[in-house]
Amino acid sequence: MKQEEVGRFPKWLQEQLDARNITPHKLAKRAGISHSVFSRIREGKLPNWKTCLKIATALDVDPVYVLRIASLLPVLPAPDADFEQLRFQYYRLSPLLRRDAIRILRAIGEDDE
Questions:
Q1: How far is CA 107 from CA 5, 15, 49, 83, 101, in A?
Q2: Domain count, the chain
Q3: Same structural domain for residues 70 and 46?
Q4: 3-state per-residue secondary structure call for 79-93
Q5: What is the chain's pLDDT, residue by residue, as a tens digit (113 residues)?
Q6: Half-sphere exposure (Cβ direction) of 110: Cα atoms closer than 13 Å
Q7: Which listed residue, of 6, 23, 32, 96, carries a Cα 20 to 30 Å from 49's Cα?
Q8: Which domain holds residue 90?
Q9: pTM, whole model, 2 decimals?
């Protein structure tokens, strides 16, 4: 595994903590992970599948995305990673809101042309 792959997860995790203005201790508790395990992850030890899923749930982000950041699944090119995030949010919507989301995206696409 390349060094940049090892450093990617701790960097991403710190960005998530900063963006949400939460402490490492609070996220570890929310995820149900011991503080020592969480500290090792922040120091560069890659998490396992189960830990990634707990972190994804605690942060309310797509678990597949977290697994990719942790190099447990192949990383997709950036546009595909963005699409995964969009897809994750889409599937969380009710059928009625999904139709609204599609209409909004179409309108945005038309404005772009």
A1: 37, 31, 38, 18, 10
A2: 2
A3: yes
A4: HHHHHHHHHHHHHCC
A5: 455 566 789 999 999 999 999 999 999 999 999 999 999 999 989 899 999 999 999 999 989 999 999 999 987 666 677 888 888 899 999 989 999 999 998 898 877 65
A6: 6
A7: 23
A8: 76-113
A9: 0.67
